[in-house]
Amino acid sequence: MKTVAGMSEVASPQAIIASIETQARLVRTPFDGGTMAWRIWGDGPPLVLVHGGHGSWMHWTRNILPLARHFKVLVPDLPGYGWSDAPPGEIDAERLAEIVAAGLQQLLNESEAIAFAGFSFGGVMAGHIAACMAPRVRRLVLLGAGGLALPRPPPPGLVKWQKATSDADRRAAHRANLEAVMIANPAKVDDLAIYIQEQNTQRARLRSRSISLTDALRRKLDQVRLPLAGIWGERDPMTGRYVETRRELLRALDPGCPFVVIEGAGHWVQYEASGEVNASLMSWFA
């Protein structure tokens, strides 16, 4: 049986990630205080995938190669995450977006129209980045995005993985946090998901919560109108029973906005329900 990257389901997480990463072109773009890491797969119209808080390009592990058959897929590690440097001083969504947009301008021709998809905190960032490049934006897809100042349930409690005293305890903490926040079906919290969570959290140097809990994305989408689409997991604990408020807001901003709620899926919807998410993205960006 095959899994991501066309490898056997018994392949190690490290081997799966390495197989995907070795097919990419790694490029670094400079900013004041460091550089950003970009990984690029495929050819065709550019599609930018923006990861969530405490994440990296690996948030899109199950999406990159299917999408790269049709698009040039550009996946950054946002400043302060993954293999990118952290910017000096105070940060906000505007400053981070300017860094990422400047990198994109170096990587793409001025004539190329760009599609964006942003997950969670990455939805806030994708909205700000797209606004910087508004005349060139084909569509912005938000997946479980924050920054909308809409009703939400209390945040789930998390296990402090940093306090684990053994590898087994640390893995158990990451599993518990994935089940609490990211993946609705415990059976889908596999070794690959745990490995990605562990790698991402260890490399995260910026806190995104102070941005995600604001109305930063809502204000930006009011200022700069963009073609929108939305994908939410029905069992996303960051949204709870308020998913329809997201649909209503996005359709108020863009009446033609397609909006998909994936039954049984949690917050990390593009991992847990990758087939449905990939099909929607390919349809909307075709």
Explain the layout of strands and helices.
Blueprint lengths: L12 H9 L3 E7 L2 E8 L4 E5 L13 H5 L3 E6 L15 H15 L6 E6 L1 H12 L4 E7 L23 H16 L8 H13 L5 H4 L3 H8 L4 E6 L9 H11 L5 E4 L6 H4 L1 H12 L1
Parallel strand pairs: 3-4, 3-5, 5-6, 6-7, 7-8
Antiparallel strand pairs: 1-2, 2-4
Helix pairs in contact: 3-4, 4-8, 5-6
Detailed description of the structure:
By secondary structure, this protein is an alpha/beta fold. 38% of the residues lie in helices and 17% in strands. The protein is globular, with a radius of gyration of 18 Å.
Query: What composes the largest sheet?
Result: 8 strands, mixed
H-E string: HEEEHEHEHEHHHHEHEHH
Helical residue percent band? 25-40%
Strand content: 15-25%
Q: Could you tell me the mean pLDDT?
A: 95
The parts where pLDDT drops under 50 for at least 5 residues are none
Give a nutshell description of this structure:
With 286 residues, the protein is an alpha/beta fold.
Keywords:
alpha/beta; 286 residues; 8-stranded mixed β-sheet
